[in-house]
Solute carrier organic anion transporter family member (Bos taurus), 708 residues
Amino acid sequence: MGPRIGPVGEELQVPDKDAKAMVGTEDTPGSKASPNPQKLRPSVFHSIKFFVLCHSLLQLAQLMISGYLKSSISTVEKRFGLSSQTSGLLAAFNEVGNTALIVFVSYFGSRVHRPRLIGCGAILVTLAGILMTVPHFISEPYRYDRTSPDMPQDFEASLCLPSTKALASASSNSSCSSYTEARHLAVVGIMFTAQTLLGVGGVPIQPFGISYIDDFSHNSNSPLYLGILFAVTMMGPGMAYGLGSLMLRLYVDIDRMPEGGINLTSKDPRWVGAWWLGFLISAGAVALAAIPYFFFPKEMPKEKQELRFRRKGLAVSDPPVSKGEDSSSEQSPADSPEKKDNLAQIAPDLTVIQFIKVFPRVLLRTLRHPIFLLVVLSQVCMSSMAAGMATFLPKFLERQFSVTASYANLLIGCLTIPLAIVGIVVGGILVKRLRLGPVHCGTLCLLSALCCLVLSTPLFFMGCSSHQIAGISHQPGAQPGLELFPGCMESCSCPSDDFNPVCDSSSRVEYITPCHAGCRSRVVQEGPDKSQVFYTNCSCVAGGGPVPAGSCDSACGHLVLPFMILVSLGAALASVTHTPSFMLILRGVKKEDKTLAVGIQFMLMRVLAWMPSPVIHGSAIDTTCVYWAHSCGRQAVCRYYDHDLLRNRFIGLQFFFKTGSLACFALILAILRQQDKEERTKATIPNPGLQQQLLASEAKKEPEESRV
């Protein structure tokens, strides 16, 4: 364990190896070129820079497959009839398996081949992504109108006809069989299982990769490498949203299109895109990124030895000096008696049962560190904000500004994610270039969190109220649901669970179906690109129509770009805090405890942020629903929301988490300044014992000088 964690043994192996390679050749003319062939063979997989590149690509692909579900969360809700709370639980369920096993990272971290274990985890992530697509293949083709088993009769089934009631009841009875419900439960169970395996596969990737980079990279280069790693990693969600934007433009059953095609466009609220296709593409990317990890060594030379070797012609006297400094500085913690109390040191001598018994005590001891605890809490708040935003921001844009799911993902992938990458890079560069100490890192985090909070305030006012929907109550204190219509549709037998909205653009009133608008006929206008459906002879519409199919557009759709600009700027400022806060943890704990500290950090972030935050946001969104769809007697997907409540509660949760992060950074800065002040005070006040020794030595010198 000592030679693996302490870089002393690792650094001394490289010169010995080089010396053996140059024995007998140092006096020959070709002595300079002789070691090159031996150094070129292991150079690729023994380079920490190449490992940073490979790990960045792997985490990019891993977050792409994880973020893809978030980009298509509203589509999955419509396809399988899920509430926002259930979909939020599904999005957070990959953290369950991850959290259950992340505790053992510090135990196995001292025993296993870290790169090889990362590759095995990536293979499991690939299998989980493939399993996520199984519900599409075992489900029946999607029917966007449940009242009719024959899709060409979709629009006729929604008209105001006396026979519609009998048709709807017959279709409802045939579709709500025990087999259908069992298949629905099986589909949901498969998705939850796939999410669990996705989390289990991701257990070794981040903690082992980060500790591996920090162990074998130069201390001054570690912040830049981590900044590059996090920046490239953030491209994963961006690519996931971009992939979702492309896939959701395709119809869900593109592999089994019905005869005669479909009569839907991507703007129709009943449209369901090919959500499953992105999982296959992402799984293939993860599988390719996992290949190099089976060729990396368990240990590699420390990077500063390689940098010193490249410039040894310029400074020949550097190696002995640095060697002495390194040995004196790096052997001191290894020889310290406190090392015996570290879990990373005693873990190789413990069994799994003993490790489980020891871990709570070590966990509590680590959490007593005030800086570590506050930094983790601030990251928990930031992660809660990011988890809720990443999961439900596409759906929020769809509902609040009447944009398609594809366009919402495109905005997030082109604005929010790139600016967040810029924020991470800026944070890493500032730490490295300015050589920021702990106090300055805390100041940078505090200022960034404060500016992020200020930019969130205008978001409360960037939106508009819901347009009027006939038959749905919006009055305060009234129960949401269908109201009694006037006599305009008394002769119609409209099914209560049908959904085929039409919009009266003159009065901006939306009807759940053409039947609820009293429409008795329809007209299809063929266009060069697509056909447009209109309903006529509508008894509930002034003039009888015609009214176009589809929901009414939002009156504040022009605010979507300013809204996204503010959200993206806030994400960039929040991302600036990522690398400085992470360096506070890495530089605040002992070197042999880095793996354990990183494991505890990720465990707490998953337990306190990534697991509950999507469920909290989903539950808050469900409380703003005013009209639920029902499937076989159970509550399914929400059809309409109160836009004002949706905006205030969704943005309010974001504001709450940003405020908590700001408070944590303020406490961190106060503690760091107090510690810095105490250190300066100790440095200015001399030690009384040392002062007495100096006085005694001066008293002895005085008689000698007098004799001279």
Observations:
- DSSP finds 29 helices and eight strands in the chain.
- The chain has three domains: 42-142+180-245+275-312, 369-465+555-683, 468-472+487-550.
